[in-house]
C-alpha cells in the first residue's frame, strides 16, 4: 500500500452532520456511493486519476449532496457519516442508522 493510501486510511473517521455543515455551506462535501471505497476515491482524486473520477461522476457514484438530502440531515444533525478530509473537499458516506 502506498504511503498516501496509509495516510488516508488513518485519516478516515466518523462525523456527525452537524460537524460537516460548515463544509457543506462552502460546497465542499462530496458524497461517495457505498459501493466505492472511500480511501480509493480519495487516492484517485489526490492523484488526478481523471478517467476514474469522471467515470464515477458520470455513473453518479460521487456527487454533491442535494438540497433535499441536506434538508433531511439538517433536521437530524446527529446523522453519522464516514468522512475523509481531502483538502479542499470532505468525502463522505452515509453510515447505517444504529
Secondary-structure map with pairings?
Elements: H1 3-11, E1 13-16, H2 17-25, E2 29-32, H3 38-46, H4 50-58, E3 62-63, H5 67-75, E4 80-86, E5 89-94
Parallel strand pairs: 2-5
Antiparallel strand pairs: 1-4, 2-3, 4-5
Structural description of this entry:
With 98 residues, this protein is an alpha+beta fold. It has one domain. The chain is 46% helix and 23% strand. It is built from five helices and five strands. It has a five-stranded mixed sheet. A hairpin with a 2-residue loop joins strand 4 (80-86) and strand 5 (89-94). Helix 1 (3-11) packs across helix 3. It is globular. The mean pLDDT is 93.
In short:
With 98 residues, the protein is an alpha+beta fold. Helices cover 46% and strands 23% of the residues. Strands 1-4-5-2-3 form a five-stranded mixed β-sheet.
Amino acid at each position: 500500500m502506498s504511503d498516501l493510501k496509509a495516510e488516508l486510511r488513518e485519516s478516515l473517521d466518523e462525523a456527525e452532520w452537524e460537524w460537516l455543515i460548515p463544509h457543506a455551506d462552502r460546497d465542499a462535501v462530496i458524497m461517495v456511493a457505498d459501493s466505492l471505497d472511500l480511501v480509493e476515491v480519495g487516492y484517485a482524486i489526490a492523484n488526478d486519476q481523471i478517467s476514474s473520477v469522471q467515470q464515477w461522476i458520470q455513473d453518479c457514484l460521487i456527487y454533491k449532496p442535494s438540497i433535499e438530502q441536506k434538508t433531511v440531515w439538517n433536521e437530524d444533525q446527529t446523522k453519522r457519516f464516514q468522512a475523509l478530509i481531502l483538502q479542499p473537499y470532505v468525502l463522505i458516506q452515509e453510515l447505517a442508522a444504529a
